[in-house]
Amino acid sequence: MRVTLEPGGLNLQAEQGETILDAARRQGFDAPSSCRNGNCHVCAAVLLHGRVQLPDNREAGPGEEIFTCVAEPLEDCALHWEGILAPGQLPVRKLACQVVECTPIGGDVWRVRLRTPAGKPLRYYAGQYLLLERDGAEPAAFSIASAPDEGRMLELHILTRDPVTQGVINYLQQHKIARIQAPFGEACLPVLPDEPLVLIAAGTGLAQMQSIVEQCLRQGFAQPIHLYWGVRHSSDLYEAPHWQSWQQASNLYLHRVVSDQPDWPERQGVLHQAVCEDIADLADYRFIVSGSPGMVYATLDALVAAGMPADRMLADVFAYAPR
């Protein structure tokens, strides 16, 4: 039987006579539970539609609270079950972090380094992002530039060309504490892929790629990595903290591309054109792209037209700004 789990829209398959909790565990879900006999109520969920079998041959129908450790589906059903995580999904946590560094690094970009509290470390995947909270303002999203194995330190690259991001920097400098929620984002690497990587970043999208590159290098990823970093003018190129050391990596190919400066002596043009010039068979690569929705979708269309299967590209834009 198919069991749909809300509010996340997750799905699992339960066998005849199998409890919902057992089915979730078997398929790799992280589900809240304790006693497994219906007494502790930790695994409680609300049945939205369908029927389930309870102990003593009782049945439950829509609107009833059930305990998934003893409930067996009798037909396809749906539950509202808080706290369950899909395989590989990490729990979102709220943390108050110490502001360790807040330094301009060129191109109106600030490098911010935060120290998470001691104790249970924040778990995140390379390429994910966090939400930074301020009093009286909407949370602001920033890619985590540090690699997951860097302990308690989190790094952000914040471009301050609008009042919101300038307000973030002012707030951090004044309060020395950053309240965050993390992790978020699906354009990430829970595990290292078997294929070579093409990483395409516009502006401070480099922060997301820094996390991915650092993780790959630390874990001995042997496949080629092509990193394309694009800006409009050379003055937008900020001091990427690891750029110089990356040049020593034998499997990492670095490309800086400037689009709107005719006198730029290095590579000019747009990012997807540079990728197509360098790589003949795009189907052999995994792509991760970071930038504005317009930039990401233009890159997707151009690379698909050049032979990249659409499902080979990851970008957070696909989730927060679907086309």
Protein described:
Residues 92-190 form the FAD-binding FR-type domain. It comes from Halopseudomonas oceani. GO terms for molecular function: iron-sulfur cluster binding; oxidoreductase activity. The protein is of the alpha/beta class. It has three domains: 2-80, Ubiquitin-like (UB roll) (Roll), CATH 3.10.20.30; 93-184, Beta Barrel (Elongation Factor Tu (Ef-tu), domain 3); 197-320, 3-Layer(aba) Sandwich (Rossmann fold). 19% of the residues lie in helices and 32% in strands. It is built from seven helices and 20 strands. The strands form four sheets. It has a six-stranded antiparallel β-sheet with strand order 12-11-14-9-10-13. A six-stranded parallel β-sheet has the order 18-17-16-15-19-20, sandwiched between helices. Strand 19, helix 6 and strand 20 form a beta-alpha-beta unit. Helix 5 packs parallel to helix 6. It starts with a strand and ends with a helix. The mean pLDDT is 94.
Summary tags:
single chain; Ubiquitin-like (UB roll); alpha/beta; 6-stranded parallel β-sheet; globular; 323 residues; Elongation Factor Tu (Ef-tu), domain 3; 6-stranded antiparallel β-sheet; Rossmann fold
Helix/strand class: alpha/beta
Order of helices and strands: EEHEEEEEEEEEEEHEEHEHEEHEHEH
- How many domains make up the 3D coordinates? 3
Helix content: 10-25%
Report the β-strand fraction as a percent range: 25-35%
- Tally of DSSP β-strands: 20
Whole-number mean pLDDT: 94
Domain 2Fe-2S ferredoxin-type: 1-85
Family: Belongs to the Fre/LuxG FAD/NAD(P) flavoprotein oxidoreductase family.
InterPro entries: 2Fe-2S_ferredoxin-like_sf, 2Fe-2S_ferredoxin-type, Beta-grasp_dom_sf, FAD-bd_FR_type, FNR_nucleotide-bd, MRET, OxRdtase_FAD/NAD-bd, Riboflavin_synthase-like_b-brl
Protein name: CDP-6-deoxy-delta-3,4-glucoseen reductase
